[in-house]
Design a protein that fits this description.
- The complex is a heterodimer.
- Chain A has eleven helices and no strands.
- By secondary structure, chain A is mainly alpha-helical.
- Classes of the chains: A mainly alpha, B alpha+beta.
- Chains A and B meet through helix 7, helix 8 and helix 11 of A and strand 6, helix 2 and helix 4 of B.
């Protein structure tokens, strides 16, 4: 039993190291004061972050990434929420087909989506720009959002809405006072996940972007010429942003649970 | 119709090709505690949901007082609804739950709070006001749900098996609680249950339903004492059912003698016209049978039997006894039953007025299967 747990521990450690070591190295090199990407480190300093921050190419790419992210979120929320509701609660023919269509891009190769969208935009004479990137990212992330949102909607006890009706609430009041507070954390979490996906999306973006650049595109083009620690700094920032989105998502999902815990703590104090 | 709280006229409900309710007409008087009782699938819950407006009838009309509300949504009907699984809003505290109906009616926050606390006091739970539904027990949750449903002062409270999810001790306490609430508030209660004991205990009036129709509409006493069909007799309370053949012609309410293979002739009160020679069911409550070794009851039906088992039930006990015909169940005082060992001889006696003779019902899948299976053996 003991041997087994030691072996299991070693296995997990190795697997984690394999996954996380490259990440750790990038973060470490971003603080390297020298310009070489090799050990030993010359010393630790944060000046590559300063360099990145004052690099107009990087800053404008970051801005573009955020613009694309915001646009994508708007499209996904406006298109995905009603779609998810229809899939979860609707009783119409073709419900399964609708879901499959929306989710398909999740499973398709990025390369394929990129080429398809590029061809599509060309055929309707829309020039590549940040707007086409917004559409592309929305196509890509919509499936993730709809699956999460539809799962939440299906999990919502229909009796709660019926209870609200019998208490005198109209459809709008039911939506505002019952449905929205219950689904809000899951919807925000799904959006945060979409943002994380959008921020570091490269392949699809590469096909449909025009003269402007998003952060992953700039990083890639820089890496092709010369790898500087500045890239590591930018990559670290990107990593943090993604983790932040996912972290926010996790917090939101737990927020209702946390409220319960707080109340429970009060209860224990009073009762004990 | 004006005097009724709720009136149903020719209600029919189809789900696809299934007919859930067939031409149900019913008037529910104000301040009554009316129970819709029946086995699962009899349409009682569908009927309740149609009264609530959660379902729309395929045909027929629903009236609240003199107003036709058939196509009005639930929020436009003066009603409260208690759900089997409570359906408390999980994101709101107990107090906010109770105040919900007042909030959507735009009652001011202060008044809302006062009224919600008042309702919580009515169900003895003011100390739980700030808890979330996840932190209270099932019994408490159902009381909160009742307070919530009653807070907007509905004229009718609809209850859909509200006690089914609770365990027995709490259920009994809640039955009394519901009776008290009904007495104190004077609200019309329409209660759905499949539990005949619950229906008998709580109701002013029981609507017994079967296969989408009303089988019997009477007081609990009447339903128990004078069931109008074999279904009513076997669904409500316990009953011995013997398949037999009528010896006499008898009109409804007249005494009719019956005979069955390997049994002496018994007599009972006919429900509906019985033709001589027709197959009948002879129905007798276990509580109406006495162990009368002295055979002191004049004109009594008697049969000798031997005890096969004794099942204590507190103050009384159920005794299973073998006869020359089918097994008989009877209920005796615990003291009397305790002295009976297995195999002890008994003379069973009952008054003919306590037994009921039902003409055999044509094609009915829902009635006790005992009847149809025994029919073959005894009528040969």
């Amino acid at each position: 039993m003991r041997v087994r747990s030691i072996l299991l521990g070693a296995y997990v450690s190795i697997a984690l190291a394999f996954l996380l070591l490259p990440v750790a190295i990038i973060v470490l090199f971003s603080f390297n004061s020298g310009a070489n990407l090799s050990f030993p480190l010359r010393g630790l300093a944060g000046h590559w972050y300063g360099t990145a921050l004052h690099d107009p190419k990087m800053v404008s790419a970051l801005e573009n990434s955020l613009i694309v992210g915001a646009g994508m979120l708007a499209v996904v929320a406006l298109v995905g929420t009603p779609a998810a509701w229809a899939i979860a609660r609707g009783r119409f023919r073709g419900r399964g087909l609708l879901l499959a269509t929306i989710v398909a891009p999740v499973a398709l190769p990025g390369l394929f989506i990129g080429i398809a969208l590029l061809t599509f935009f060309a055929s309707i004479h829309v020039h590549p720009s940040l707007r086409t990137v917004v559409v592309a990212h929305a196509v890509y992330t919509l499936g993730f959002y709809v699956v999460i949102a539809a799962a939440r909607f299906s999990g919502l006890d229909a009796a709660l809405e019926e209870a609200a009706w019998t208490l005198g609430a109209g459809r709008w009041a039911v939506a505002r006072l019952v449905v929205w507070p219950l689904v809000r954390p899951a919807l925000f979490a799904a959006l945060a996940l979409c943002l994380a996906l959008s921020l570091d999306e490269f392949v699809i973006t590469f096909f449909v972007i025009g003269a402007q650049n998003t952060l992953p595109i700039v990083i890639f083009s820089n890496v092709r010429s010369v790898v500087t620690p500045e890239i590591n700094a930018v990559a670290t920032v990107l990593l943090l942003t993604s983790w932040l989105s996912v972290g926010v998502a996790a917090l939101l999902i737990q927020s209702s649970a946390r409220r319960r815990r707080v109340a429970l703590a009060e209860f224990v104090e009073v009762g004990g | 119709m004006e005097s009724s709280a709720v009136s149903l006229r020719g209600i029919r409900k189809e789900f696809g090709s299934v007919v859930a309710l067939d031409d149900v007409t019913l008037d529910i008087e104000r301040r009554q505690f009316v129970t819709l009782l029946g086995p699962s699938g009899c349409g009682k819950t569908t009927l309740l949901r149609i009264i609530a407006g959660l379902e729309t009838p395929t045909a027929g009309d629903v009236y609240f007082g003199a107003e036709r509300v058939t196509h009005r949504p639930p929020q436009a009907r003066p009603l409260g609804f208690a759900f089997q699984r409570y359906a408390l809003f999980p994101h709101l505290t107990v107090l906010e739950n109770v105040a919900f109906g007042l909030k959507v009616r735009r009652v001011r926050a202060k008044e809302r709070r006062r009224r919600a606390m008042e309702m919580l006091e009515l169900v003895h739970l003011p100390h739980l006001a700030n808890r979330l539904p996840s932190q209270i027990s099932g019994g408490q949750a159902q009381r909160v749900a009742l307070a919530r449903a009653l807070a907007p002062e509905p004229s009718v409270l609809l209850l859909d098996e509200p006690l089914t999810a609770l365990d027995l001790a709490i259920r009994t306490a809640m039955q009394e609680e519901l009776r008290r609430l009904h007495r104190d508030l004077g609200t019309t209660f329409v209660y759905v249950t499949h539990d005949q004991g619950e229906a008998l205990t709580m109701s002013d009036r029981i609507i017994l339903m079967r296969a989408g129709e009303i089988a019997q509409d009477s007081t609990p006493f009447e339903l128990y004492r004078h069931p109008s069909s074999l279904f009513a007799a076997t669904f409500v309370g316990e009953a011995n059912v013997w398949v037999a053949r009528a010896v006499d012609d008898a009109a409804d309410g007249e005494t009719c003698r019956v005979e069955a293979a390997s049994l002496p002739r018994f007599s009972g009160r006919a429900v509906g016209a019985v033709r001589r020679g027709a197959a009948v069911s002879y129905v007798l409550r276990p509580q109406r049978i006495t162990s009368a070794a002295d055979a002191g009851v004049p004109g009594a039906c008697t049969i000798s039997a031997t005890v096969t088992d004794v099942l204590p039930r507190g103050a009384r006990a159920l005794v299973l006894a073998a006869t020359s015909g089918p097994e008989v169940r009877l209920e005796l005082e615990a003291a009397e039953a305790e002295s009976l060992g297995r195999g002890a001889p008994l003379t069973l006696a009952w008054h003919p007025a306590d037994a009921v003779v039902f003409p055999e019902e044509s094609s009915d899948a829902d009635s006790s299967p005992v009847v149809t299976s025994e029919a073959e053996t005894t009528t040969v």
